[in-house]
Amino acid sequence: MARKLQLVLMVFMVLSIVVIFNEYFIYYIALWSCSFPSIVDPSDENIVKAIVLADPHLLGERRGAWIDRLRREWQMERTFQTAMSLLEPDVVFIVGDVMDEGFEASEEDFKFAFERYSRIFRRPGDTPLLLVAGNHDIGFHYSVTESNVQRFEEAFKTSSVKVVSIRNIPFVLLNSVGLTSDGCWLCSAMDAKLKESALALRRCSPDVPSEACIQQPVPGIRPILLQHYPLYRSSDLLCHGDDLAPNIGNQQEFRESWEVISKEATETVLSYFQPRLAFSGHTHHGCNIMHHLGTPFPTEEQTIASFSWRNRNDPNFILLTASTKDYSLDKCSPPSESLVLASYLLTILATVAFLAWPQCSRRWYGSRRVGDAWAQPQWSDYNFHWKNRKGT
Fold first, then answer.
1. Which own/partner contact pairs does 250-259 have at CB distance under 8 Å and 24+ positions apart?
2. Domains, the chain, ordered by start
3. CB burial string 126-163: b at 16+ within 10 A, e below
4. CA distance 318 to 303
5. What is the pLDDT of residue 366?
6. Beta bridge mates, 375
7. pTM of the prediction?
8. Which of 101, 128, 318, 359 could bond 60 through an S-S bridge, CB–CB 3.0 to 4.6 Å?
């Protein structure tokens, strides 16, 4: 009995160690190699180090079982908290789809989702977290309601157009759901705010007409743009990167205002703000592409893969180092789902083999009972059996 209890305790200890490793320490090991990229002039005092992620998709009550929600949120929480501890960013950006069912959530469900968001993405000290709305947060363009937009903006302290300056570097955050210019209530409000923000960036003198002012180049530092929908591209065939969408060759062309914002909206945004860099999400896959629409100034866009293991086997997030003159990007990857599952599977197989070994070895070698232990057979035993077979 004592031997069986000792065996049970040993197995429990091994499994506990594996669980703690896979659910806690593995995140430190995976993110330990991540670091903010360097820039050309590190002596610049105005340097911002930011974590940029996309599409967490916190599950609601309608889609996904509670165990799925618990698992995905634990993975995101451990990854985010480990990244905050190891990397210590100046600011965090989330480019939309914080929630999976925000657009159809009741007040109670929305409050519950916001509480979980606050726990998962808590930050030490006064590190700011800025985000934009996605279609799963407030609805697609055709179904978005004023109450959904107001609820989201009040809870997450954001707006449809927001320009912030961090260490003299301007960041433009847009609610790209309203970038359709078709006269809808959200789109009309967005058009007016876009123009107002673009004029504020240029700081023209009062005697310069607004239409002439908005055609001028953005003085000083070109901003960094963040929105949920990608800027217009026909498909991912034009993309670069190592986390692209699968089967790109069979991919159909993107629909404007569904997978990407329209070409007209892209030209408007790029001409108004002339960003040097843009971040987006929505597709759940990575894409790096250069844009030249509507402006003589090229804009590099980085579409970020989803931060949720429910959407990808290998989520990731972007590390941005930006100064007034330069910027640099790098990708940081937490442990993949397949790696964690393989670790658990190997542990289970090793445990089963360990438990089955005494029984198998006894049958194979013909072990015999000696006291409370199994003794291995002696050479004389094999010799005896061999003689008996020979009939001697």
1. 256/232, 257/141, 257/179, 257/180, 257/229, 258/140, 259/229, 259/230, 259/283
2. 33-335 (3.60.21.10)
3. eeebbbbbbbbbbbebeebeeebbebbbebbebebbbb
4. 10
5. 57
6. 368
7. 0.88
8. 101
